[in-house]
Design goal:
Layout lengths: L8 H38 L15
Amino acid sequence: MIMSLGPYASFIVASYAAAALVIVILIGWVMLDYRSQTQRLRELEERGITRRSGRSATERR
């Protein structure tokens, strides 16, 4: 099934590509921040500072 996008095809495809790129960048950013925050929590726990929730940084829900 090939769709005809008309004279604006390049704009439409570029818009979808840009949106996909932004989403991929945001997902990567969140993953890196999660790792960073988990590492910070581990370091704090090693120094004896605990979380109020009582869970460790390496525990999964």
